[in-house]
Here is the input.
Amino acid sequence: MSSPYRVVVGSWQGRLSLILLLIMAAISLFTISSYPLDYGPRIWNNPSYWAEYPKAVPPEWASSDTSFPHTILRLDKQVYLDERLAIYEARLWYDSQEHPSGIVVKIGEIRFQSAPPIIEVVVKRPDAVDISLATLSPGGPRPGETPPYTRYADQPLRIFPASSRSVQTIVAQKLSEAYGVEISEEDVSQRLEDYIFSRPGGDGRTEPLWGEYVFRLLLYRQDAADSVGEAEIVLAGTAYGLMGTDTLGRDLAQGLLFGFPVSLSIGLLAAGVTTFIGTSLGLLSGYLGGRADHLIQRAADVVANIPLLPILILLAYTFRPGLLFIILLLTLFSWPGLTIIVRSMVIQIRNSPLAEAAKSIGAGDFRIIARHIAPNVAPYVLGQMILSIPSAILAEAGLSFLGLGDPQIPSWGGILEQAFRTGAIFVGYWWWVVPPGLLIALTSITFILLALSLEPVMSPRLASRPRKGSWVSG
Here is the structure.
């Protein structure tokens, strides 16, 4: 009989499954080496980390040519300086049909010697209308603090003009005066970015105002040594990255990447432990017989007849499990089927001439099981282990989809659950729903194809049948 490897590579199912497995393994290794181990709680589940990212936008490859790209402008070009005022600016040439989906002003590492400076961020439009986006002054010296005083060094200050009532008032007043139309603050509050990058028309309509936009930071200093270390204008795009973003602005490509090692680890660990337990108990039950056989089989009957999904939901809801607890749950309720089948195979093998000959020369029970019985059931056990991997992956995805997975770790099922919970499928956010579903299906199909390619090994009678598109070496 050919080796398992030669049988696998001798069929198109085996070759395809091996290629897919190598790709998944490479992606998993890349993800583990590129992302921190605490990626879930520190980054994925941290809303402040994603505050500057566009919200619920499609991938760049699926967007139209008129979309606005995600843009970060650094206000680091000094255009004016004296003892009391320093001006920094950045320029943007705007020629898109779509306006930014959000504006964020980010300022960090403010240093001053005595009194805190006053900082203003303004934008000058192509029509010469100046709009103030933010005005701030950091807190003064604290008791016991010595100069130079530093503010927002560890975490930059983020300002969202769209949520500022004063900015809405300024935009409404200045555009109303410049174009002679009545613009209400309520209209501006609902689409501030649209009004900043457009010229208003009648009946609330706008059209893009193309040209050069100049963003300036004005630092009114009390001391010549006062400075701002970081200043950026983040213009959120209408498309982002390879897989788009969700409603929190999270990059879905990162979540999908992190799902590869999570899903593979769950599948491999749960399948491996389940196979070890089921095979070991099946070997002992079939070979020893008597009370041991009776006890193991009754335990298998009880566990096999427990409704798995309701029990998993109850335990997961009660304990709010982590990743290891989910693997433990899947293991505890998945071993009986393999135990029962392996037992029936062992009963047929234990009375074979080879096993009887080993007994006659004084071989111990463990040696007989390890040398003469286990190798005969190994091909079937291998196939069952491979088939149980997608079952474990689907079970974890199902628990996560129900909101009962590990909330600290991004997984494909968890991404689907968040998408359905926020109504993504009803508002057309397909990039949030389709990719994780396809990855779950693709991973399951990969292991199913691998198991199908091993059929001649699991059932030697199939090896003698010629298979189209495959070869079998003698």
Observations:
- The chain has two domains: 4-44+251-463, 65-236.
- Residues 316 and 325 are 9 Å apart (CA to CA).
